[in-house]
Amino acid sequence: MDPIRNPYAPGAGQRPPELAGRDDQLRAFDVVLERVSRGRPERSLVLTGLRGVGKTVLLNALRSAAVRRGWGTGKLEARPDQSLRRPLSSALHQAVRELGHPSTDEADHVLGVIRSFAQREAGPDAKLRDRWSPGIDVPPVRGRADSGDVEIDLVELLTDVGGLASDTGRGIAVFVDEMQDLGADDVSALCAACHELSQNGLPVIVVGAGLPHLPAVLSASKSYSERLFSYQRIDRLSREESDRALSSPAAEEDAAYADAALAALYDATSGYPYFIQAYGKAAWDVAPRSPITASDIAVAAPEAERELAVGFFGSRYERATPGEREYLRAMADAAGPDSDAVGSVGTAEVAAVLGKKPQSLSPARDSLLKKGLIYSGERGRIAFTVPHFGRYLREQG
User: Fold this and answer.
1) What mean pLDDT, rounded, does the chain reach?
2) Which of 124, 162, 184, 314 is the most exposed place for a label (fewest CB within 10 A)?
3) Going along 30-134, which residue ranges are E strands?
4) What residues have CB less than 8 Å from 387, skipping those under 6 apart?
5) Which CATH superfamily is domain 23-233 in?
6) Are 163 and 190 spatial neighbours (Cβ–Cβ below 8 Å)?
7) pTM, entire model
């Protein structure tokens, strides 16, 4: 098979050639866009799932859908050590530019509010290099979105942005990746702003994506967040969807898979989109001809596993300290080889494997939670954020 024509794309956030299994989410989002454009009430959206299920890819696809509707859009990636002000200001600056409001004066006023919101983080005595401006050449609007209270400021900011969008008969959508990494104050402010927007019927929506515990993060901030957002769990693909993700791109290149090869690939990948792309790429490169057979998959599997061990599993494992790695391996041992790809284990079980008291392991556990290597879906239980990570650790010895 010609490697130049290999259609598969196992990259972080890289859209696969066939976005299989996400039709329901795309259709539902089209309805949201149309309802909001018509002034109908609609909730913002939160996507949750493990690493490698395609949350970022879907987030980008939803953004493209909004752009096609003429909406203004902006995207940011939350980071644990970064305030929301600067990245959100950049995202909204781009959204206002995309919206293309016909009145320069009104658009400039909102851009001035965005600049005011961004610069408030630096403070009045900040050095010139810290007085960040996202390419906005209008002066900041004093007394708007610059109180220093991020909840007050964010409500004022998004209200002004929403008013600008309503003039055009379209809307503005802000896409937030890794949403679970927002600080507690920023999460609270974002929930309060979305609540205000929904009450006032302004055409601004937030689309967030994050790990499975994101709903708990939002709920801990504002109790009404359970009703504020529409939650959609993004999971692995079914066998039929997995087959389509592999076969459709191959057909575009005049190639095909034997049924046994597709079955072998589903067994190897468990339907996780990132794994499907990695194994599909390896199978294409080793197969001498079409159709790709189960024997080709057997030859390709070690290469795909080596690629995943370095780029998907290994890159995350290397971020852990020796003590944290010991904790991760104990999690894998506690889960056992017969556990599914995403099973959780009790913190007491991990402590038992290590022969230590659970309290003594709290620093390692908390650090792994902050690094996004594990998450806690319920009290006293933890799980890997990466599917098959336990199997990888057991194979490492």
Assistant:
1) 92
2) 124
3) 44-48, 72-77
4) 50, 51, 52, 53, 236, 270, 272, 275, 341, 342
5) P-loop containing nucleotide triphosphate hydrolases (3.40.50.300)
6) no
7) 0.91
